[in-house]
Write a structure and sequence with these properties.
Elements: E1 5-12, E2 15-22, E3 25-32, H1 43-52, E4 54-59, H2 76-95, E5 99-104, H3 106-115, E6 122-128, H4 138-144, H5 146-153, H6 158-173, H7 182-189, H8 195-208, E7 226-230, H9 241-247, E8 252-256, H10 263-266, H11 268-280
Parallel strand pairs: 3-4, 3-5, 5-6, 7-8
Antiparallel strand pairs: 1-2, 2-4
Helix pairs in contact: 1-11, 2-3, 5-6, 6-7
């Protein structure tokens, strides 16, 4: 039975945020978006999970989407860590079981860091093109993009800013920019629709970059891991996967052909199949899996 998606507000770790939620069976799935993005980037994934009847929750990270802003005087990753940990505990309590946490880009970095906390009720994690490996180039790609530089160069009407941001997003995030639906682009652009929004986001990125130099202790991860990456990712090269493969010998790795930085948007059906199979395999012994 298809479950309805509903939108509401939550407060987690002291941050007010927007939630997109499905009620259903477990293990429940928590979805964590990437830099400058929002919970809307998981709508295609949520649609697939709704068809399987799985419980799921997508949230705006603090500082992005419609969530509360970050503390400017504190490091960013610890603030996001506290938020993700609170979200995991909230969902585990609400759904009555350990949580599968999925994260794209910056979200992928955060789910790996969450898995280092062995006290969290995690059934498994799915980092998708995670940031934080090798020298991070994704921010340089954003800041150096000609369209982004044009947005920052001088006064522009908001409609022009939205058009330029949308075109830059298509070119940077996807292997096949023209194949991406306007609704996907519009969902991203609505949160980066003015020059002030763009400048604020880039300022956050500059603060974040030093924190992504060595953000992991992979030796602490004990939960099952499904790593997903696109082989044409322009933002975060899939060569970073070698660090995870070396550190986590039981890791499951899926390198998706003809896919860019956001497999959940570019290859939603294939990504949904991988996620559902991984989540279904996390059902405890003696519990009937979702069908």
């Amino acid at each position: 039975m298809r479950q309805p998606l509903f939108e509401h507000r939550l407060e987690l770790a002291g941050y007010d945020t927007r939630a997109l939620q499905l009620l259903g069976d477990g293990p429940p799935v928590l979805l964590v978006h990437g830099f400058l993005d929002s919970a809307d980037s998981w709508r295609k994934t949520l649609a697939g999970l709704a068809r399987t009847g799985r419980a799921a929750l997508a949230l705006d990270l603090p500082g992005f989407g419609t969530a509360a802003r970050l503390d400017r005087d504190a490091p960013i990753l610890p603030q996001h860590d506290a938020f993700v940990a609170a979200a995991v505990r909230h969902l585990a309590e609400e759904a009555g079981g350990d949580v599968v946490v999925v994260g794209n880009s910056l979200g992928g970095c955060l789910v790996l860091r969450a898995a280092e906390d062995q006290e969290l009720p995690l059934a498994g994690i799915v980092p998708v093109a995670p940031a934080g490996f090798d020298h991070p180039t994704w921010f340089r790609a954003i800041e150096g993009d000609a369209l982004v530089r044009t947005v920052l160069a001088g006064p522009l009407p908001d409609r022009v800013v939205r058009a330029f941001v949308g075109q830059a997003y298509r070119q940077l995030a996807f292997a096949r920019p023209r194949a991406i639906e306007a609704a996907v682009v519009n969902a991203f652009v609505q949160h980066q629709s003015t020059q002030r929004d763009v400048r604020r986001g880039l300022a956050t990125g500059r603060r974040l970059m030093p924190e992504l130099q060595r953000p992991f202790d992979l030796s602490r991860i004990r939960v099952p891991v499904l790593l997903v990456w696109g082989d044409r990712d322009r933002m975060v090269t899939h060569k970073g996967s070698r660090h995870l493969v070396a550190a986590l010998p039981d890791l499951q790795y899926e390198l998706l052909p003809e896919c860019g930085h956001c497999p959940q948007l570019e290859l939603p059906e294939r990504f949904g199949e991988l996620l559902e199979a991984f989540a279904a395999a996390r059902v405890p012994v003696g519990v009937e899996p979702t069908v």
